[in-house]
């Protein structure tokens, strides 16, 4: 369509790579938001879809700020919004044609609560039977008989702290076995139980040792079992992890990022900017890797900010520097992919290993004062 322009942008992006600076034009583009929202809202009824398209438009307008005549930014934004809406229709059409290829692995809600309760009871008994005798006795004495850790420690000549740690490990193991029984699943690899146990106990050092993050990307069973384990382990409310496989997950990732950043009091514009950048990296995962995850984390030092890690085990990027230039795109879809996300965030880094996958780490810092 506009090859000439793309070449110009590519040059400016390469310079930016050498000397990173704050993304320009944020305030100007923010002023256009109501107009863009009106244009998109008039054409798209679904609110989530409309928000997505507003963000698409924002990315494109931000990218164009430097080459649009002053005073022409609003008409440019209106035209861009219309184009973005129009291409989305084509996109959806293609998506519908490909939908039969998508396998939904999410569990189906069981309708019969009585049946569920009975199943859970027997699953718990089965899980308990899989623990060691010592673990079982410890759990039963503490949880069922209400014996405290100090008297348990006296019985075995140990300390209360050591008993508490044993109790935690036993609980973590019970949660893992319980979920495996409920799922009627035998772990497909030797790595599964150590990974699940590390997640269940909330032991981050152990999670690194067993390379839990990578395993969750590669193992469907563990990926499916991990959410309840992460919730029950040492719950962290400053971090959220979203598995990314489908377009719906892109929306979930975007919303999670927006919600997290909102807690730090980012401006409405910044919230949209952050959500847009997350959309871009999530879309990249769906398009190029098929599956991956996004972790959004609140950062307090050296300043307050939101850090986003997007990880996949896809084919990887052979030439990262080239993939970060605006003109480079292996698909003709919406969005600006990695260059767009990079422009929107303050810190941005890509590590990619062909055949192993790609990790994008990006941070938006809160403005001082
Ligand atoms: Zn596994």
Key features of this structure:
5-stranded antiparallel sheet; disordered N terminus; 369 residues; 16 helices; single chain; binds zinc ion
What is the string of helix and strand elements? HHHHHHHHHHHHEHHEEHHEE
- Count of discrete alpha- or pi-helical segments spanning 4 or more residues: 16
Strand order of the largest sheet: 1-2-3-5-4
Ligand kinds: zinc ion
Low-confidence stretches: 1-24, 97-113, 330-334
Helix content: 55-70%
Multimerization status: single chain
Distance between the first and last residues' Cα: 43 Å
Number of strands: 5
What is the residue-averaged pLDDT?
A: 76
Strand % is: 5-15%
Secondary-structure class: alpha+beta
Please summarize the sheet with the most strands.
5 strands, antiparallel
How is this structure best described in words?
The protein is an alpha+beta fold and 369 residues long. It has a five-stranded antiparallel sheet with strand order 1-2-3-5-4, covered by helices on one side. Helix 5 crosses helix 8, helix 8 crosses helix 9 and helix 13 packs antiparallel against helix 14. The N terminus is likely disordered. Zinc ion binds next to helix 9 and helix 12.
């Amino acid at each position: 369509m506009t090859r000439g322009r793309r070449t110009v942008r590519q040059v400016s992006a390469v310079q930016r790579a050498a000397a990173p600076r704050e993304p320009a034009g944020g305030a100007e583009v923010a002023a256009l938001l109501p107009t863009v929202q009106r244009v998109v809202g008039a054409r798209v009824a679904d609110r989530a879809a409309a928000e997505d398209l507003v963000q698409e438009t924002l990315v494109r307008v931000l990218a164009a700020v430097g080459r649009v005549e002053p005073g022409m930014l609003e008409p440019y934004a209106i035209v861009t919004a219309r184009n973005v809406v129009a291409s989305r229709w084509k996109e959806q059409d293609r998506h519908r044609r490909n939908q039969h290829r998508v396998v939904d692995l999410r569990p189906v809600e069981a309708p019969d609560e009585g049946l569920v309760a009975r199943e859970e009871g027997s699953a718990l008994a089965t899980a308990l039977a899989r623990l060691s005798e010592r673990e079982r006795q410890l759990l039963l004495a503490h949880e069922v008989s209400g014996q405290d850790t100090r008297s348990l420690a006296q019985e075995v000549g140990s300390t209360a702290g050591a008993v508490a740690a044993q109790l935690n490990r036993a609980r973590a193991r019970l949660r893992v076995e319980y979920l495996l029984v409920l799922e009627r699943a035998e772990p497909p690899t030797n790595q599964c139980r150590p990974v699940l146990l590390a997640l269940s106990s909330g032991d981050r050092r152990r999670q690194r040792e067993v390379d839990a993050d990578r395993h969750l990307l590669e193992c469907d069973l563990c990926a499916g079992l991990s959410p309840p384990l992460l919730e029950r382990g040492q719950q962290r409310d400053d971090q959220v992890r979203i598995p990314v496989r489908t377009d719906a997950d892109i929306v979930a990732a975007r919303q999670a990022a927006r919600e997290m950043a909102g807690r730090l009091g980012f401006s409405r514009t910044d919230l949209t900017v952050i959500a847009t950048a997350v959309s871009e990296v999530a879309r990249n995962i769906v398009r190029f890797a098929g599956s991956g995850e996004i972790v959004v984390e609140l950062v307090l030092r050296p300043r307050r900010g939101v850090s986003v890690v997007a990880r996949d085990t896809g084919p990887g990027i052979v030439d990262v520097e080239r993939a970060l230039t605006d003109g480079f795109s292996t698909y003709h879809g919406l969005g600006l992919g990695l260059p767009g996300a990079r422009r929107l965030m303050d810190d941005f880094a890509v590590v990619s290993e062909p055949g192993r996958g790609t990790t994008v780490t990006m941070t938006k810092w809160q403005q001082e004062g």
